[in-house]
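During data preparation, we tokenized the protein backbone, and the record follows.
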Amino acid sequence: MMSYRCGRAQQISQLKVALRNHHQYEFNKPIVCLAYGCEGEGHSEFLSLLTQCVLPAYLNLENPIREYVIQTPKDNYADLWPSLGLALLRKNNASPEEICTVVRSETEPLMLTLSLICESFDKRSDHLLRQLFAFWQAWPNLPTNRLLINYVNLIYPSYPRDGFLDFRKRLLRKWNNRFGSQLMGRDTSGYTNVTKIVLPELHQLTRNDISRWFLDLLGQKGPQFAYKMFPDLMKRDRTISAKTFYGELREFVISHEWEMECLVRSLLAKMALQNVARLHN
């Protein structure tokens, strides 16, 4: 789980700021949180990090936040009620009144998640997002301090370079690069009953991202392990996908089990000392 933090500090920081503003000014509104990025950038892993570590710690919860996966409607988010009924009540014929009652009676934060595969931010994607905001706009005000987040993964395919004449993929890569600005620029001011959060792009991991993660995790030993695990990346200014980073890190840990066990013990001892110092301060 700790590896999922690599290169994601900006997303976590901005989410916390947005939630702080939401609690201060718009506490009884549902939240639509949009997380976009290329496939292979660990969308599901980042969501697990949020629900199991980041948000429980930020909200002072004892347990992880339960995730309710919504089946993505094919064309119309007016059909979101059956998906919500299936996720929350395990029946797709639940009435809107039943679903609203369940949501209002919950004492823990609700995380409703869905994923969209977007080849580009085209008219269909824009239309579906507007329908999604319209659905939550019509939602009744939530009880005080009730937190409901509709977390939406917007995943666009990667288009590897296949030569000079591959014009279509070049055009699609160009659209991908503009995806975030188009998403941010969409006017949702008419949806006054919804808090919109757009997280920074889940991007490929750079040499600096990985160096900083190892440094934060291991202190002075961090750069040494970074170069040992990822020599090609650390020697050259390259990037790798988050999925590749997780996989290679896992393989290294398995193949260097004894060394990792000693390192983990050292790390746990360091964390214990930090907790003791925090209690005394």
